[in-house]
Amino acid sequence: MTFTASVVGGSGFTGGELLRLLDGHPEFEIVQATSRSETNRTVGHSHPNLRHLDLRFSHPEDLAGVDVLFAATPHGVSMEQIDRFREAAGTVVDLSADFRLDRETQYEEWYDGHSRPELLQEAVYALPELTRDELPGAGIIASGGCNATATILGLLPLFEGEVLAGDEQIVVDVKVGSSEGGAGGGEASAHPERSGVVRPYAPTGHRHEAEIEQLLDIEVSFTVHAVGMIRGATATCHVFPGEPVSKADLWGAYRGSYADEPFVEIVSGGGGVYRYPEPKAVAGTNRAEVGFELDPGNGRLVAFSAIDNMMKGSAGQAVHAANIALGIEETAGLEFRGLHPVGAP
Amino acid sequence: MTFTASVVGGSGFTGGELLRLLDGHPEFEIVQATSRSETNRTVGHSHPNLRHLDLRFSHPEDLAGVDVLFAATPHGVSMEQIDRFREAAGTVVDLSADFRLDRETQYEEWYDGHSRPELLQEAVYALPELTRDELPGAGIIASGGCNATATILGLLPLFEGEVLAGDEQIVVDVKVGSSEGGAGGGEASAHPERSGVVRPYAPTGHRHEAEIEQLLDIEVSFTVHAVGMIRGATATCHVFPGEPVSKADLWGAYRGSYADEPFVEIVSGGGGVYRYPEPKAVAGTNRAEVGFELDPGNGRLVAFSAIDNMMKGSAGQAVHAANIALGIEETAGLEFRGLHPVGAP
Amino acid sequence: MTFTASVVGGSGFTGGELLRLLDGHPEFEIVQATSRSETNRTVGHSHPNLRHLDLRFSHPEDLAGVDVLFAATPHGVSMEQIDRFREAAGTVVDLSADFRLDRETQYEEWYDGHSRPELLQEAVYALPELTRDELPGAGIIASGGCNATATILGLLPLFEGEVLAGDEQIVVDVKVGSSEGGAGGGEASAHPERSGVVRPYAPTGHRHEAEIEQLLDIEVSFTVHAVGMIRGATATCHVFPGEPVSKADLWGAYRGSYADEPFVEIVSGGGGVYRYPEPKAVAGTNRAEVGFELDPGNGRLVAFSAIDNMMKGSAGQAVHAANIALGIEETAGLEFRGLHPVGAP
Amino acid sequence: MTFTASVVGGSGFTGGELLRLLDGHPEFEIVQATSRSETNRTVGHSHPNLRHLDLRFSHPEDLAGVDVLFAATPHGVSMEQIDRFREAAGTVVDLSADFRLDRETQYEEWYDGHSRPELLQEAVYALPELTRDELPGAGIIASGGCNATATILGLLPLFEGEVLAGDEQIVVDVKVGSSEGGAGGGEASAHPERSGVVRPYAPTGHRHEAEIEQLLDIEVSFTVHAVGMIRGATATCHVFPGEPVSKADLWGAYRGSYADEPFVEIVSGGGGVYRYPEPKAVAGTNRAEVGFELDPGNGRLVAFSAIDNMMKGSAGQAVHAANIALGIEETAGLEFRGLHPVGAP
């Protein structure tokens, strides 16, 4: 059986990644891609890896009826357009932050409020390792944010495995690539200014902090740096457990959470060049790498987590969620394992 | 039907790329990977994208019997081991330069001679766009060199389309990524020294010049620069036709050669960011992009050609050749279309 | 004695580089920097390396009287403003292309015409290694273009040393960094799109071809690629002398031209990692490296030349020219020799 | 007055940087540079920016008598050679870790013990912003480590300004460039493997933790990542003060510590592209940038600090210390303010 799909906001980076995944997916057929700025241009004009597609961007006012609509639009668009999206499709997968939080007050605190708060409880947050059971049959799916996903995957086993109680001091220091800034980019995104930086772009108060705290029911101190890569988000979680923890405890916790997960791999202190999670090692894939190290002298535990922000952090996670929602094999269309060697993709 | 395959020299970059492709190939089953230095270690120890494989490197002395043996060994090894390779496999695909040239005298001129010259005529040079017909049933396949492949693909239509006669002045200025140096690397390959270079690493006399001249029966002036990327080889071919050429002539020639080729795309002066061939746009794929521009004021024609040196320039081309040799669908296992955006992969 | 100086267009990359050099120059005092978009902001707001300067941008309408005015404005501005510039300063050093060519017809062919053609003969083209004698006392100095400077420095000894007659086939393949695109930058300059490219950005017909042909009185086939670095322009000149040339001839020619030049170094085939000219090795400096290699089999000679496009290719060359014009020590303010190791600066 | 100087270990990255600084220093004359592996080769063979120096490496057994000897040798060499060094020079500036810690027990805990523990108390740790007063006349100067220097400079005002008492939870997350690995480099340092990484290279237990704890008399939880740049070390210090802190408190503390420091600049939340400390902005200079941000919701304070690990983190700091020790102007030879734009230097 094949499902029809459309991508709203198809000329941006995330929209292109969705189109790439849907094109290679055995169960989806792309019916439409929209772009306001690129209407009538070919998809390949925006995305050189999609020149083989015989598809031109439609105007976003002309939505085709499909089984699944993926919205890769800036924050604020989906909440305004949600009725049109739902009219067009039985399943709406939103990749923006518009339906990720549960309560209107959170949007007032972290964003600029919300115009459709009555839908927030209906929407299902998609981070399948945590919310898999809620996804089948969901009508509005809010695909988890990139930095939140990296962080949650790094910390989740510590709570599921009861290594932490939830009231511990947790510092999360995130490093991200330039694709998080999207296809537009201003002066700070220009190559001469952005190349080779370690730039504190969200020293405090990054909005994904709200997602993490909601999903894990904890407090985190969250800081995001832009570093010298294009794809990738990696979270270094500095955690101070109340009681001493052993390596065996950690292996038990991480294996307990992830042994059966198709997209999470534990990489923790083996040999060779790649001994801990690295965004390079997952670039282009829907995989997450997680790992950990103990610092007994400081009563600290460090958890590392690396994803491709364009994949497990957005388009890949959205397709993964749609697979589950529609009863498709979870890994369908998401099998690519990545390249070696690979530079700063 | 499934063919069994082995990779000799599996811990190097090219060996890893072969294993990645064979792992995802519907018609191949990996039976063995060898590595002298990594014997008994897992394949994932060398290649983080292959950690899911339940496979350890064998010692190269212990060759299993297979349908196809891929040799990803340094120059000189295959000519010494060819009898053992052929004993182990009915089809040997050699990725080194050992069987690419036709005559012993060429090896004396460009390399250090050849120990098995009687086999040179038997071996088939694999650059399917040019030598497809010779591949079915071949016993020794010499997969074309990366820089030679980029250059030949850029120039081929000019000869097939009779734009050039073969005696014109041809300058080929090639730019390559750091993966061409292989997994070892010396002082010049260390990140602080290699990062961001434009380095004339073969100002003149690069050995691939011999392949180009043999395959196209021409003379070329060939120069290779190392530039700031990991994967990629791009050839800029400056050509001076004897008579004026039109854009229509060129489109005719390139379409004539490549319209039906599954892995070659003509990219020549369209809109958007990616208007001519770029190695970024083909990174991780077996695709080649070719394009051209006229310079009437100088009586010049510039042809551009971009490939991923690890794929169309080595492992991808080898698998493509094996597909043809064994009667498998040509594109099997080579469908990946690449990522956008992507950095310096 | 100290000269007063101003920089028109001070918030761009080249303007910032001029301010940096003038700030560290023993004989210049910065009186004014103008910027239309950044008026009243500090210089350090645009240029983090200049935060120590107690200087705010003036509006470009309010020009102070100075000894030397450096114009770092886009093409077309200087020809419109030249009367105001000359009213403000006895010496105008223009870093745009507005006064580089000799004849109105050249501007009609390569640009969009010229509004003050009567001044073209008066302006002196500044590439001191070639035009040093014309600079003392000049009123309008047109600082040589970056890609033209790299190319001319690579080829000059071949003509001065009579290795070439001037009617030979010459192909120049240039590779440049992203700073050539300036501080604005559009979609193609955004980090995710620009990072790691080898992009034919001027396949044919780059405007600097006109400068080269004028200065050397030759024809060149000129192609420019954007590659993975920020600063740097390197020219690979493929030349076919009419008669055989020896290494000794070349050393003689290059030493003849450059032995006494303070900013040109011959780097040609020595040992170590840096054996030929490389833009990394001159980044941040006013130095040029030139070198060469013979390809007897093809009757070819390859000349390499590397500069920092922001320095020897623009701001450094402008200060060098001003030094000469005003009778200051040539190397004053330009002594920085560069860093090692250094990445892709 | 001019002081004579030598560099032991001159062919490595740090040795080259010392030679560059001493060459441009008005008060030092380079008498000797030693290198075991490059004996008799020119200094320019190792360092392309020093080709103008008429100097060949001596064998390290043949030490000339000088005023100051700079030792840029691997850990363990200086403690073995210290008597010879002191015989050769009245002032020994050691850039290794051999004399940085105060007590033998620290070397037993963090290193492999110490062969000359009786000298530890005599040696002066050089981080002039903290230990300036101890430097004049010192015989053994232990130049502070790169990651320790970045961290200490970020945290110091919090203690000097009594924002912190010393028993608070402090997490330091450091990001460093590839030059920290030195000129040798193994497989993990090869360009294809090292390019574009965010690699946890010292997840816990980095030796510089000992320096920080000794100098500031605190406990820190310390983690170091390798990221995509060549030069640079930046520390993100996550701190949890016991009582609420205001921005005014922080400005007061940082200004109190650094207002008169020639090499430290407070960069904290201004406009433009460069709003917080960034290693790019100090590359090639002896400057440190420090800044901070409050996170009231988490009771957290984040302090940022960025240096060039080759300069303020080693060679620049060593020269700065020597300037103070010998009564030279502090900033002599260290005036370079850096480039803009600049890539990943």
Could you please describe the fold and organization of this structure?
The structure is a homotetramer of 345-residue chains. With 345 residues, the first copy, chain A, is an alpha/beta fold. Helices cover 27% and strands 22% of the residues of chain A. In chain A, α6 packs parallel to α8 and α6 packs across α9. Chain A starts with a strand and ends in a 19-residue tail after the last helix. The mean pLDDT of chain A is 96. Chains in contact: A-B, A-C, A-D, B-C, B-D, C-D. Chains B and C meet through β7, β8, β9, β10 and β12 of B and β7, β8, β9, β10 and β12 of C.
Short note summarizing the structure:
Four copies of one chain form a homotetramer. Chain A is α/β, with parallel strands linked by helices.
Most strands sheet of chain A: 7 strands, mixed
By DSSP (H or I, 4+ residues per run), the number of helices of chain A equals: 11
Give me the CATH fold name of the largest domain in chain A. Answer: Dihydrodipicolinate Reductase, domain 2
Looking at how many chains there are and whether they match, the oligomeric state comes to: homotetramer
Kindly estimate the percentage of residues of chain A that lie in beta strands according to DSSP.
Answer: 15-25%
**Which chain pair has the greatest contact?**
A-D, 53 and 53 residues
User: What's the count of strands of chain A?
Assistant: 13
**Radius of gyration of chain A, taken over Cα atoms and rounded to an integer in Å:** 19 Å
* Outline of chain A: globular
- Helix and strand element order of chain A: EHEHEHEHEHEHEHEHEEHEHEEH
CATH superfamily of the largest domain in chain A: Dihydrodipicolinate Reductase, domain 2
How many domains, in number, for the residues of chain A? 2
The parts of chain A where pLDDT drops under 50 for at least 5 residues are none
Biggest sheet of chain A, strands in spatial order?
Answer: 8-9-7-10-13-12-11
Query: What's the architecture of the largest domain in chain A in CATH terms?
Result: 2-Layer Sandwich
Task: Estimate percent helicity of chain A.
Answer: 25-40%
Mean pLDDT of chain A: 96
**Sheet/helix structural class of chain A:** alpha/beta
Distance between the termini of chain A: 34 Å
| CATH secondary-structure class of the largest domain in chain A | Alpha Beta
